[in-house]
Design goal:
heterodimer, A: 407 residues, mainly alpha, 16 helices, 0% strand, B: 407 residues, Cytochrome Bc1 Complex, Chain D, domain 2, 2 domains
Chain lengths: 407, 407
């Protein structure tokens, strides 16, 4: 019955990307590389050993990385919970997570200069001899171990990102329900490893920008933003694909409604975690902990912090609350764009005060990195998507997903 | 609820008609019939099925529940109540300063606000759900129908109440039959009165009487005087395993619970091992002729400020010995004059001796060690030196660019 439903709905609607997508890949790659090269030249002109450029790059890198990681989390959770409703949108998340190996390449501009001895980004790379605290942290914060950990993170993410994509595409051809069981089993392992790698990656790449500061909840904070970004990207992708005449038979109001519910709950979760981190540090008022918030509490950064509270929690909380909003895909897509912008602001707020404590140093470098990496990320995602069906055509739960109703 | 053994109809002749019950063969038939009943203009009717039937709410024309708005309003109320409660109790009624935090600081109060939002919203959702469904309800005429028992296992029903303005005891059942009902039967109000069962009533009375007891006991305890010691409910708080000040302890040989400090221990900041700075003396015992700190503009201004506070009342703002106190004693006929700081006997003293005088006092001048910190004493001496020099200044002391002005 399921397969019949599928084929009768398939009709003449395309369920893969068109030829134009294939053509965009090399164009976007070239444009992205060009823009990044141009931005790097601008960064060189600042004569600060590329410090500003590296910080700007890290912001945007973490932004796109978290989209893919959020998508990987989404895929793994759907398998773990044996979800039926989400089958028609799961492939979109699989494609985003399938771009994780490409993120490894985009990490090279961060780690290669470090291996060549640059401490522009992370001050702990070459600690001063009298700096007792950093010397004490040396067993963890040292270059070789940092590199090994980065390899481990990307290995886990790349492995599972490709695994879920390739098994699912294999099922499109064979229709073998055993593959679903395999993915369900793998998802449990994937989520455990995901939790560890994401937490420590957040420690390594974002928290160690301020090597004297620490917050044990920091990984969860990054995770919360990651899932919001991933869900927003899935919603946006679905809306764009439907606007281009694809997947209209597959993704219904009901799917948007459920994605919207998840999005709202993770917006709240982000606020919950962000506040948990803030309140404990505010209340304990310990010098070694408050330094991080002191830098973000006064002046222009203080305004940025307030902006973050409103943009990422209070406004979308009210905006996404209504059932009607979640059931209108373009309204929901608006909030997805809003929250992606908010997540970029979040990354900026995490990284930039270390580079420029006085005020947000918004400038051409940020724009250049954002545009350049956007092109490269688009190319990476399209490269994964091209030639593959945008829906798991023979998933055993496809029929359930197509017939899904919220009420 | 009726007696399960009793067949419906036993008492029908003597009881009022409650409504009509029609059974349908399938969910699809139920949805079709529901649409027809709605179209016919009935108001007081309902559908019953053992599982949720998709589309039944649309067919019945059920309006969306107002419950979310109630829950939202209750959540807002919870937030406002929590904030006002904390503001009143901790900020106004009984201000209690906790580790230097503001009496009403938002971060500390968010947690309670969050809990009250959940509490109010949760209770409203539960009670509102019951109230909107007109529950709790002890009995319903439909429950007396033997056939209706299958509504929770394998049968679909439509019931129309006799109270509906469109209801006709003869025509409505026939019309339902024509809609495709497999069986139609009439339901009657229970013959027995709707009085609350006696045992239940008794139980309520007993429980209510018992509930009065605790408040009565509390009221008695508050009003009646007693020679008995008070009851300690939380004993480990009233009797803590600790020693109080000056208490005895068998643990130490001298029997004292408070331990004297280790011989030679010096309290934080009380070391004062620098004779020059703290006593104004050189290692050989003579008074120092130099200041123990760099002389700055800030130190001079501090000295002027402190001098005008502590010294000028006797010595006068210019150090002439004409402060407001000698002026007053003179006016009252008991002249008393402090020494002028410009006398040679004072001008010739080394700064260390002046420091000693301020610290320990001399003749009628009291010691100022307890009022003026060490740094400030040196600052005052610096200012006194400036005053002394100003009284014996020559043109050479005036900066070249200002000389024209004083001519």
């Amino acid at each position: 019955m399921h397969l019949n439903t599928t084929s009768s709905h398939l009709g003449d609607e395309p369920f893969t990307l068109g030829d134009s997508a294939t053509a965009i890949v090399p164009l976007a790659t070239a444009a992205g590389l060009g823009l990044l090269a141009l931005t790097a030249v601008l960064g060189w002109l600042e004569h600060d050993s590329f410090r500003h450029f590296f910080f700007s790059y890290l912001v945007v890198f973490c932004f796109f990385l978290s989209i893919s990681l959020g998508a990987l989390f989404f895929v793994a959770v759907q398998h773990l919970s044996r979800a039926g409703w989400s089958v028609t949108v799961r492939r979109l998340a699989e494609i985003l997570a399938g771009a994780l190996p490409a993120m490894t390449v985009l990490f090279l501009p961060i780690i290669v200069p470090m291996l060549l001895g640059s401490s522009s980004l992370y001050a702990w790379v070459s600690p001063a001899p009298h700096d007792e605290l950093l010397r004490h942290k040396l067993p963890y914060l040292n270059l070789p171990f940092f590199g090994v950990r980065a390899v481990a993170y990307f290995a886990v993410w790349g492995l599972f990102g490709r695994y879920f994509l390739l098994r699912s595409v294999e099922q499109d051809r064979s229709g073998d329900p055993q593959l679903t069981l395999k993915m369900e089993r793998a998802s449990a392992v994937a989520l455990i490893l995901f939790a560890f790698t994401l937490t420590f990656a957040a420690f390594d790449w974002l928290m160690s920008l301020e090597p004297r500061w620490f917050s044990t909840i920091f990984g969860v904070y990054f995770f919360a933003g990651t899932v919001v970004a991933g869900l927003s990207a899935i919603i946006l992708m679905a809306a764009l694909l439907q606007a281009s005449g694809r997947l209209r038979w597959a993704i219904t109001t009901e799917h948007y409604h459920d994605l919207g519910k998840l999005l709202l709950s993770f917006v709240i979760f982000w606020g919950y975690i962000a506040f948990s981190q803030y309140m404990l540090i505010w209340y304990a008022n310990l010098p070694e902990e408050v330094v991080w918030y002191r830098a973000r509490n006064a002046g222009p950064w203080g305004i940025t912090s307030l902006l973050l509270l409103f943009v990422n929690l209070l406004i979308p909380f009210l905006g996404l609350m209504s059932r009607e909003v979640k059931r209108r895909k373009y309204l929901l897509a608006f909030w997805a764009v809003w929250l992606l912008a908010g997540h970029w602001l979040d990354m900026y707020w995490l990284v930039m005060p270390t580079y420029h404590p006085a005020c947000p140093p918004l400038g051409l470098l940020d724009l250049g990195c954002l545009l350049g990496l956007s092109c490269l990320y688009l190319a990476a995602v399209l490269r994964v998507a091209v030639g593959r069906p945008l829906v798991p055509l023979k998933d055993p739960r496809l029929g359930e997903s197509l017939a899904f109703e919220n009420l | 609820m009726g007696d399960p053994e009793k067949q419906p109809g036993d008492a029908e002749a003597s009881s009022a008609l409650a409504g009509v019950l029609a059974e349908f063969a399938s969910a699809e038939a139920l949805v079709e019939a529901a649409a027809a009943v709605r179209a016919a203009g009935y108001r007081r009717w309902d559908c019953h099925s053992p599982f949720p039937v998709h589309g039944i709410d649309r067919a019945m024309g059920i309006r969306f529940t107002p419950l979310p708005w109630l829950v939202f309003a209750a959540g807002l109320t919870g937030a406002i109540v929590a904030l006002l409660l904390q503001w009143w109790t901790n900020g106004v009624d009984y201000p209690l300063l906790i580790s230097g935090k503001p009496l009403f600081g938002l971060p500390a109060n968010i947690a309670v606000a969050f809990e009250l939002i959940i509490l109010f919203a949760g209770i409203t959702a539960f009670v509102g759900c019951l109230a909107l469904n007109q529950l709790p309800r002890f009995a319903h005429p439909l429950l007396r129908s033997e056939r209706f028992r299958r509504a929770t296992t394998d049968a679909m029903f439509i019931s129309i109440e006799a109270a509906d303005p469109q209801f006709d005891a003869a025509a409505t059942p026939q019309w339902l039959q024509s809609l495709g009902a497999t069986a139609v039967e009439l339901c009657y109000e229970p013959v027995a009165g709707r009085a609350i069962p006696r045992p239940l009533l008794m139980a309520v009375v007993v429980l209510a009487s018992l509930a009065v007891l605790p408040p009565l006991l509390i009221a008695r305890a508050r009003l009646v005087k007693s020679t008995e010691p008070r009851i300690h409910i939380i004993t480990d708080m009233a009797f803590q395993p600790k020693y109080k000040m000056q208490a005895e302890s068998p643990l130490f040989a001298d029997g004292r619970a408070m331990r004297p400090p280790v011989p030679g221990a010096i309290a934080d900041g009380q070391l004062q091992d620098d004779d020059h700075r703290y006593r104004g003396k050189l290692p050989d015992g003579r008074f120092a002729t130099t200041f123990p700190m760099p002389l700055t503009e800030a130190l001079m201004r501090r000295g002027q400020e402190r001098f005008n506070i502590y010294c000028a009342v006797c010595h006068g703002l210019a150090g002439m010995g004409d402060g407001i106190i000698p002026q007053r004693t003179t006016a009252r006929g008991k002249p008393w004059l402090p020494v002028s700081l410009h006398e040679l006997s004072v001008r010739s003293q080394p700064v260390g001796q002046l420091f000693n005088t301020i610290t320990n006092g001399i003749r009628t001048m009291p010691a100022y060690a307890s009022q003026i910190p060490v740094e400030d004493r040196w600052a005052i001496i610096l200012y006194v030196r400036a005053l002394q020099r100003s009284r014996a200044a020559t043109l050479d002391d005036v900066p070249a660019e200002l000389r024209d002005k004083i001519r």
